[in-house]
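TICKET #2291
ISSUE: user wants both folds in one file
ATTACHMENT 1:
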Amino acid sequence: MEEKDWNIIAKEALHDDFAFDELYEHFFPRIYNLIYARVKDAATADDIVSDVFEKLVTHLDSFDSTKASFATWLSRIATRTLTDYYRWQSHRQNVEWDDVFSPKVDDKDAPDGQLLEQEGKKELLLALGKLSEREQQIIELKFWGDMNNKEIAETIGISSANVGVILFRAMGTLRQILGRE
């Protein structure tokens, strides 16, 4: 199956509701996961994602595919909107990474299996908390934002090689931390 050219679809979305719906359907889960991974609250994530897509509608005519891909452009909007949210808040909420790793445990799982899963998530939460803010951001963009290294690099303003190095080291650090604990 041929990959869609989201840059072209974004330009078509200016005048074509079907193209806009296609953009929305494809990018909504990606942006929602990215935002939710940071705020850990569904209602807050809904509000921020709503703001992101409102900005998308308002500024779609300024999208320039020669400067960045549509995915990168939209991720930058999401990142800036999230930054605005944290600036607006008087203090940063206590982040519960556990919510990200367990949307819902199936009822059919045994209680001891659920307990082991929760303990593993708590270990991962603690390990992730030991990484730098930049390492956490790159991991979030990679795994929850479903972005490749080039898109991450364009979003946070570093080289894709640097993203790869930071990601490699962060994953190694996570392995070491989880191996010791």
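ATTACHMENT 2:
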Amino acid sequence: MVTASPGATLREEQQLIGSIVELMKSEQQFLVSADADGLSTITPKKLQLAQKATELSRLRHRALGAAGFPSLESSMEPWLAVEGNDELRADWNRLLELTREARELNRVNGMLVNKQLAHTQNMLNELRPATDGAGVYGPGGQALASGPSRRYVVG
């Protein structure tokens, strides 16, 4: 099914991306507070909204193709210059604005995830016994005693 106009999906796309932005803001709070349970509720919702947004984008691309433009995101500007009006232009600009906001939230949330992973890895490293560079087994195949750990955990 081809959408009648490439602009027909813009409002719905805005709503979906806006919902994703709100979820990403919640995700950021869960990341800051290290709330794994909260994070686990966000991911499936984001995925579902992203899939819907992708489908609407595909419909818009097909409509661009049917209108004689390449079926690409970059074709919206030329289509708007020829076929669009002020309302469609405003809708498109708002969608682009929301997409930029989502991209920035994704970047920041990614940094927070990496920070949490690094912290977790450091804590795991502190819990592992020190081997002073030795392997688990000595040259004769006998297990080496590691002795007491010199590492500690600071909470």
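RESOLUTION: both attachments delivered.
EXTRA DETAIL ON ATTACHMENT 2: The chain has four helices and no strands.
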